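Usage

Read records sequentially. Each one opens with the input sequence:
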Amino acid sequence: MSNLDKLEIDKFTQRAKVMYRRLADLYENLNEKPIMPDVLPRALLELGSASEIVHVATEELFQQNEELIQTRNLLEAERQRYLDLFDFAPDAYLVTDTIGIIREANRTAATLLNVSQQYLVGKPIINFVALPDRQSFRSYLFQLSECDKVKELVVAIQKRNGELFDAAITVGVVCNEQNKAIAFRWLVRDITERKSVGASNFNNESDLSRDRLCHKYCKGESIPLNSGAIWYVCQGCVKLSTVCEMGEEVMVGLAGEKMVFGSSLTALNTYQATAMSDVELVSIHLTEIATSPVLSHTLLPKINQRLQQTEAFLAIAGRRRVQDRFQQLLLLLKQEIGQPISEGTRLLVRLTHEELASACCTTRVTITRLMGQLQKQCKISFDSKHHIIVKDIS
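and closes with the structure output:
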């Protein structure tokens, strides 16, 4: 009930109380005093006034009721229209709670998964993810509640009859007034045919991102690693790291634009990827690489590039003096993520002292001291966003 409706009802109640009080006063006067000649006309006038009040209030309530009925009919028609749009949409739509239990599913989703709509409701969405992808999907589902942006991923989906297909999924987070996630909306598309056509028409490096679903991650977000696929960086920079015995993070690589990374390219037990900036990635499945000689030929130099960078990081760690390690790291960063400017070479991403220290196997305090020395020697400087500018380091 709106505040306006409540106000009108309160007004009607008040008028009824006034009318009742007037009638009570009249009856009391009639019982206590003999009827005077002027009492009856006055009583009739009071009754007429009270009747007019009730009539006006009744008319107003009737009008309010008519408007409410019209509004309710419009809302019901609008609700039905959106239900039809949802149910008969050409793409598969699902709505789940924050733990992935399906609450709504349209007809296309039921057809795509080869089940009835009634069967879908109440089932965990992960039940339809192929077994090899379930672990990474579960991790992805856990991260969704912490993100307020639309997310995209590619997973293998298994129909109820056991048939598999590659699906491009777009996920939107539904939040309440306190900005807390309360539900997820899933758009699912079968891209098996598109990927097949893309593989057969692959011509050059630009095709690596063409017709593939773009995955976007914000600065600081962890990027899920799938053992059955590698990531190709279209835009931004990704930090690759492991954890040492003392529990400290150690940076072991950086993947910039047109570079690849993935858990299948390392033997480290603990291996994680973190967005150093807002990044755009595409996923390339290992099965696709294995069946496409052209794709394998294009990716081989990029995998080799990652190997060379890893060896460079190892060479840095092998130097005895911390100062030498730090200077060699700056030269490597200049080569990997540097952008030439008039003052020197600007590193495209901002690295914290802690991250630089982890790459040099030293402490944050030591890095701060060394940076101060290099800045005094005019070998490095900083731009307005605190990005390092490498000037003259040999």
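Summary fields computed downstream for this record:
- The domain at 319-390 is CATH 1.10.10.10 (Arc Repressor Mutant, subunit A).
- The longest strand covers residues 164-175.
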